Amino acid sequence: MNGLGVLERMSELARSGKAFALATVVWRQGPSSSKQGSRAIITSDGELNGWIGGACAEPVVIREARQVIADGQPRLLLLGSPDQFGTAVPEGMTVVPISCQSEGALEIYIEPVLPVPHLVIVGSSPMAHTLAELGRALDWLTDVVSPQDFGADSAGQRSMVIVATQGHGDEDMIERAVAMQPAYLGLVASRRRAEAVLGYLAERGVPAGQLDRVHAPAGLDLGKTTHEEMAVAILAELVQLRASGALADVPAPRTAPASQRPAGQRSGLPLAEAADPVCGMTVMAGAASLCAEHQGTTYYFCCAGCRRTFEENPDAYVRTSVF
Fold it and tell me: For residue 23, is it within any domain?
């Protein structure tokens, strides 16, 4: 996967609400199998889509990307042997020593792409468009959907749905929406109109448990308001409920922004890693990794060359290896 394939995969993951990291090669020193501008997506479970480098770079990038997702803080990596850079490393850059046989070096920027709330607004009134603008200003994934296009794939359990059809098919839209079981479902209507809509649906057999979850009218009660103020009242209620944890499936605000943590503090994310006993490089320890058994212990390697060297004389490396 490369080029447009990476971008399409990014869009799929973002809309599904899954956290991931985007890694981009911003500089390379040959020989290296990667190219400047190469990109890869790394998911929170360590799956890599795209191309960021060979066997030396990949496990390091996966490890650092998972930390970036956990911390919510981007980082700039410089991969290579320590003697390649000396004192010429810019402030804020993380140097990761690797003992790659190609003797190349890479500079890789890794940025987190974290889940955001999904706001779905059904209707085309001025209030609906104002609310959409406010939602986008908060960086929420915001969709404005016409009643004709509002269907099962429009929202899910992590969505917040606002039915703002202003009396044009409110009952039908609410009935469709409750079946989607969104995290929040609100109806824009007067209290009297809202009671009539819910009463009609109850008579049609919609379960009371589903109707009890409908916020009708939607938004904080600010009294008589303009359509702009109504949009603010609805958004304020969503922000309030999200912050309180009442919307279980909606991504919560980050309570400890990475920028407020002490420098260098990491999340402590447990990762399956090991040190290559031959070159000392940190490698992923998994079923797909290069490994060898010696006296009941499994050792992992960055490349076939290190494994072959180990197998020729394992005792020379077991005594000095550190895990």
Answer: yes
